[in-house]
Amino acid sequence: MNFGFLLFPDVEELDFVGPWEIIGMWSKMFDGPEQCLIVSQEGQAVRCAKGLQVKADHSFETCPPLDYLLVPGGQGTRREVDNAELISFVQKQAAGCRQVLSVCTGSFVLQAAGLLQGKRATTYWRSLDLLGKLPGVSVVEERFARDGDIWTAAGVSAGIDLALALIADQAGPETAGKVQLAVEYYPSTKRYGQAHLSPQAPGYLKESK
What we know:
Blueprint: E1 2-6, H1 13-29, E2 35-39, E3 46-47, E4 53-54, E5 68-71, H2 77-80, H3 84-94, E6 99-103, H4 106-112, E7 119-121, H5 128-132, E8 137-139, E9 144-147, E10 150-153, H6 158-171, H7 173-182, H8 203-207
Parallel strand pairs: 1-2, 1-5, 5-6, 6-10, 7-8
Antiparallel strand pairs: 3-4, 9-10
Helix pairs in contact: 1-6, 1-7, 6-7
């Protein structure tokens, strides 16, 4: 099995690094996908939103068929939704995938590829209204959402929860629990300051205060 992570300039680092850690642990220790692959358009290194540079394993042309595809978000998605070559790559790979996932505003790439038509989906909290104005999408304000073989997550760190939920679905809760323990992912419920209580904050943050 191949698990692909699609990267592009100005991608948000934790959108893919968080899931990469979770999926990588599944792969290395608990009989998960044989390969975790970084894919960029020309196979070039990608400079991310906060300056991290990541080397790609494959270009669109050399990328093998993927069983799983994850599309992260970030400022770069504003440009990539109009990138016909990238959208075509997502469409072609998705046709053979077991599951397709997005984190944060990666959902806009899935929408541009026609993968959210008639689907429930979520995205970064500041972009929920914008996603809801696009045709075919039923927007939900949740940490992550699944509709069939399409999974979407809220912003940035939500991709970690998405990846664990995917493992629980594909390999069972016990395997997901082993991965969770291996990476020691037991988030604190501590809330700093009052930002999570503001009218603009996501509903799930207010509910879990």
